[in-house]
Known about the structure:
With 345 residues, this protein is an alpha+beta fold. 43% of the residues lie in helices and 14% in strands.
Amino acid sequence: MVNQTEAACKPDLAGIRRRLLTWYRKHKRDLPWRRTGDPYRIWVSEIMLQQTRVAAVLPYYSRFLARFPDVTALADAREQDLLAAWAGLGYYSRARNLQKAAKDIVERGEFPRDFSSLQELPGVGDYTAAAVASIAFGLPHAVMDGNVARVLSRLTPEPGDIKSDAVRKRLWAFAEALLDRKRPGEFNQALMELGATVCLPKRPQCERCPVHLHCEARKQGLENQLPVRGARPSADQRDMKLLVIERAGKVLFWQRPAQSSRLAEFWELPERDQLPDAKVIDFAGAFRHIIVNTTYLVEVCRATLGSRPNGFRWLAKSGLGDVPVSTTAKKALALALKSPSNKTQ
Ligand code: SF4
């Protein structure tokens, strides 16, 4: 199997590298984590970018670094402040692991400077260790994220299921062979940039691709059919009804317990079933929200309640930016607080 990849691409490795790097230097996006050599800042960016788009990360990145400018500040942060700074980015275990890792680094007395020491940090897997090792320290480790796997599967071309172990292995072997060992950080970023801006999942922009002459998928007219993906599990759908109960500039919330498997210690709006005594005033709106594989159809109602039940707290609306509030609750609040109350049921 490896022979197919090698036979098709080995002679062109130098050409791919040269063209890709020339293109990257001219066309790369100006992103804040590309303007620094500080391993802490590069590491934070890589963690934030896991499963999250660049446009979504940008405002969080600057705010986060303004609040926690170095590894010591992050290690010393109160968990509530950390989660509040991360609220809205999702996958909150990333923030907790980031802080655990920061504490480890402070204990060690220096930032880990090689692939295996980086991998020992909580929340740092193969991809992140390779990215930080190559970008911050110039070490020759190839990266493999979804963008890179797609580009490589088209360059080779790879006919197998991109999720299968065998295909992953083949693509890894190709990525290692292709890596520019003199400039691994720049080369890895160039490959990721190509996947993010040109070799797109749907309708790849082959006419402006710097490596189209080397691309087997393009030559064979397969660029829109690759990568091959196995069937995905079908998504679950559920209904949720949230209540926004206001009183004197405050809103009623409950807090997830510290041992909650998801969004531990985040503040949530009450669901209808939690407060059977609440009186619904009107319907404020609805939205869809996807959590992992489940799509929630969230209906938001304004309501009133006689007295505060056990397990709930009034939080001042003006202070909600300082505590971790779930994205679902934020969306519901935005709907309820912006639309006028107009109907009594
Ligand atoms: Fe992707 Fe097209 Fe470039 Fe091939 S030629 S790497 S399919 S953008």
